[in-house]
Specification:
Elements lengths: L2 H4 L3 H5 L5 H11 L3 H18 L8 H11 L8 H6 L1 H59 L4 E6 L5 E7 L4 E7 L8 E9 L2 E8 L8 E2 L9 E8 L12 E4 L4
Antiparallel strand pairs: 1-2, 2-3, 3-6, 4-5, 4-7, 7-8
Keywords: Cell membrane, Membrane, Transcription, Transcription regulation, Transmembrane, Transmembrane helix
Membrane topology: Single-pass membrane protein
Subcellular location: Cell membrane; Membrane
């Protein structure tokens, strides 16, 4: 990662939303970049204040009243006009200060809601990053398990599927090559074969057709797996003929 790219990570770092490798790279960069260190301190302090903010709804009539009052305020004249009509300008300035204060109050009420939203976005980003790390860790553990066993089979349409099963991890990983994107409004769904009863093992997103997928749920006593095309969101039971069935390898 280039130094220019590292300079752009201050906000994500302040919100603890960086993946582990990027976090480590950025922390090494912080030791040599005072500008980024200062920005992180400021953003962290701001994030803390925003996290304490409470949403407040402005009175319904406030917006209309502020906009109405603004229309009665003349634009300030040029500097010479202000000098020659100092008294009048001072009066207008006083009225404008009151109206500006009212507008600020309205904005502050709205920004309370923005602060809560920003805090929720940061929390969601951290949660998604944590879930992604946990998912990738579990997938790696299955693939690297000493008792991992692999079996492959041809799938309908010329694709090929491979499943890796680890009894010690009680999980399975599925991968396919040459698997076309599902038709519109459809999705690929994985299934565990529990002695002839198919149990859902998760969906394969259209963007993941060439990626290894950690199957949902434990293997338990499943003897194999299958993959079908189902309506978007998946089905409780298979509704189409499977593209392929694979028996799990013996332990």
């Amino acid at each position: 990662m280039s130094t220019a790219e590292l300079h752009t990570l201050t906000g994500a770092y302040a919100l603890h939303a960086l993946p582990e490798d990027e976090r480590l790279s950025f922390e090494r960069h912080l030791g040599a970049c005072e500008a980024c260190a200062q920005e992180v301190r400021e953003l962290s302090a701001t994030a803390a204040r925003l996290g304490l903010a409470v949403s407040a709804t402005a009175p319904p009539a406030m917006r209309a009243r502020v906009l109405r009052e603004i229309t009665t305020v003349r634009q300030e004249p040029p500097s010479q006009g202000r000098i020659s009509r100092a008294g009048a300008a001072q009066g207008r300035a006083g009225r404008w200060t009151a109206y500006a204060l009212a507008a600020c109050v309205a904005a502050a009420a709205a920004l309370g809601g923005v602060a809560v939203w920003q805090n929720q976005v940061a929390q969601d980003a951290r949660q998604e990053a944590r879930q992604a790390r946990e998912h990738n860790t579990q997938l790696s553990r299955v693939l690297a398990a000493p008792d991992a066993r692999t079996v492959s089979a041809a799938l309908e349409g010329g694709a090929r599927g491979t499943v890796v099963v680890s009894q010690s991890e009680n999980r399975a990983v599925f991968a396919a090559s040459g698997l076309a994107r599902p038709p519109g409004g459809k999705v690929y769904q994985l299934w565990f074969d529990d002695g002839g009863t198919m149990r859902s093992a998760g969906l394969v997103e259209a963007s993941d057709t060439d990626e290894a997928v950690l199957m949902d749920g434990p293997v338990d006593r499943a003897s194999g797996m299958g993959i079908t095309v189902e309506p978007a969101g998946g089905s409780a039971r298979p509704t189409t003929q499977p593209l392929g069935l694979m028996g799990f390898p013996a332990a």
